């Protein structure tokens, strides 16, 4: 099947391109077909193929790290038949991963092969700067381009002031005030979105309503929020992947109660690029930014170019990320030790068997 044929069959609407086709060559020669994962649950997944949607059984080995398991947005190789089987994943171009509270120290993949990450922030209640910074770190670390979308602008006293305040948290990130109810900012937002787009944010941020406005139809389920705190229920209970009318693909995700970081060093550097730039001007390379002489970070605090809140958030997220990474390192060391012990046991059993054979 040629690349042109696959384009005609509609996979291009879900992001299929020449690079993916090239990486799929060996799979095609084995009689497999390309598919994009729409959702995963109970040992099976919903996929979109060149000929339409299918339900497929997962038939690939369970990875040591759950992050490497199929998730929404993955490109995969499918064995067709009466019971289609997903047998391999194509290399990811990026994946949005958050840390989990489990004792295994594994992360959770939220979406794969994302080009644009929309961080949805409701203006119906006071925004949470720390949560925004966390979500931006996840987005940057994945390789996606984040866009901050302020939803429910029609409920804000001064949307322009909100844009200015939020933009200060996000160097290099476009911030757009929108209202699905009035249409404010929707054209600007649509023009800013490219490729595969994921919606990130807590319940009640208006992600599904925003998604419906972009789709031009009430496809995604929405729910009301509590008036006292602006929080919503989890009306989106699983991830969904649908094509956008103007091109590209939209992934809607359930509201995120916890946003833990895992190996997000580069993401944090992007989010706090202003502090990183100040730190480069410090007199000492190992400056702790406390009371050291010639500290450019402390000078920025004194001049008002940097807020205490932002510096505290930077330090807190760095500590959290380092702790999560140390848990991951400890798990990998334990797995390595287990493998060494297994090899040692196998060798001992082999030697014992040989000794018995020689004596018999």
Plain-language structure description:
This protein has helices at residues 3-8, 18-23, 25-29, 129-142, 159-167, 186-192, 207-215, 265-271, 273-280, 296-303, 308-359, and strands at 33-41, 44-49, 52-58, 75-79, 85-89, 95-99, 107-112, 116-122, 145-151, 174-177, 196-200, 240-243, 249-252. The protein has 360 residues and is of the alpha/beta class. Among the domains are: 3-91, OB fold (Dihydrolipoamide Acetyltransferase, E2P) (Beta Barrel), CATH 2.40.50; 96-252, P-loop containing nucleotide triphosphate hydrolases (Rossmann fold). 37% of the residues are buried. Belongs to the TRAFAC class YlqF/YawG GTPase family. RsgA subfamily. InterPro entries: G_CP_dom, P-loop_NTPase, Ribosome_biogen_GTPase_RsgA, RsgA_GTPase_dom. Its EC number is 3.6.1.-. Residues 328-341 have a biased composition (Basic and acidic residues).
Percent of residues in helices: 25-40%
DSSP summary: helix tally? 11
What is the CATH class name of the domain at 96-252? Alpha Beta
Strand content: 15-25%
* Quaternary structure classification: single chain
Categorize the overall geometry.
flat
Please name the fourth-level CATH homologous superfamily of the domain at 96-252. Answer: P-loop containing nucleotide triphosphate hydrolases
Q: What is the CATH topology assignment of the domain at 96-252?
A: Rossmann fold
Mean pLDDT across residues: 84
* CATH architecture annotation of the domain at 96-252: 3-Layer(aba) Sandwich
For the termini, the CA-CA separation is: 61 Å
Secondary-structure element order, as H and E?
A: HHHEEEEEEEEHEHEHEHEEHHHH
Number of strands: 13
Question: Which structural class is indicated by helix and strand composition?
Answer: alpha/beta
The strands making up the biggest β-sheet line up spatially as 10-9-8-11-13-12
Uncertain spans: 1-8, 223-237, 329-337
EC number: 3.6.1.-
Family: Belongs to the TRAFAC class YlqF/YawG GTPase family. RsgA subfamily.
Main location: cytoplasm
Domain CP-type G: 104-259
């Amino acid at each position: 099947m040629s690349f042109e044929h696959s384009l005609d069959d509609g996979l291009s609407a879900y992001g299929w391109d020449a690079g993916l086709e090239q990486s799929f060559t060996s799979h095609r020669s084995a009689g497999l077909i390309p598919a994009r994962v729409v959702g995963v649950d109970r040992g099976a997944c919903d996929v979109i193929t060149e000929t339409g949607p299918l339900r497929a059984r997962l038939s690939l080995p369970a990875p040591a790290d759950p992050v490497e398991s199929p998730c929404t947005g993955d490109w995969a190789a499918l064995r067709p038949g009466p019971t289609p089987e997903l047998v391999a994943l194509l290399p990811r171009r990026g994946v949005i991963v958050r840390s989990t509270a489990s004792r295994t120290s594994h992360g959770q993949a939220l979406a794969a092969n994302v080009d644009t990450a929309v961080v949805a922030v409701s203006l119906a209640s006071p925004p949470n700067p720390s949560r925004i910074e966390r979500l931006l770190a996840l987005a940057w670390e994945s390789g996606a381009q984040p866009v901050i979308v302020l939803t429910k602008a029609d409920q804000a006293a001064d949307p322009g002031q909100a844009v200015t305040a939020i933009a200060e948290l996000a160097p290099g990130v476009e911030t757009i005030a929108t209202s699905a109810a009035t249409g404010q900012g929707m054209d600007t937002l649509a023009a800013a979105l490219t490729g595969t787009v994921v919606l990130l944010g807590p319940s009640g941020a208006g992600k599904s309503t925003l998604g419906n406005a972009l789709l031009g139809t009430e496809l995604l389920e929405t729910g009301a929020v509590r008036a006292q705190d602006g929080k919503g229920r989890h009306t989106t209970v699983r991830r969904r992947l649908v094509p956008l009318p103007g091109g590209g693909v939209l992934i809607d995700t359930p509201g995120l109660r916890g946003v833990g970081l895992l190996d997000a060093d580069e993401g944090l550097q992007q989010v706090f690029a202003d502090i990183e730039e100040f730190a480069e001007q410090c007199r000492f390379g190992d400056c702790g930014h406390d009371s050291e002489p010639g500290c450019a970070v402390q000078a920025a605090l004194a001049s008002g170019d940097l807020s205490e809140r932002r510096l505290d958030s930077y330090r807190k997220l760095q500590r959290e990320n380092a702790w999560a990474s140390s848990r991951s390192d400890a798990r990998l060391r334990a797995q390595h030790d287990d493998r060494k012990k297994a090899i040692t046991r196998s060798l001992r059993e082999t030697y014992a068997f040989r000794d018995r054979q020689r004596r018999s």
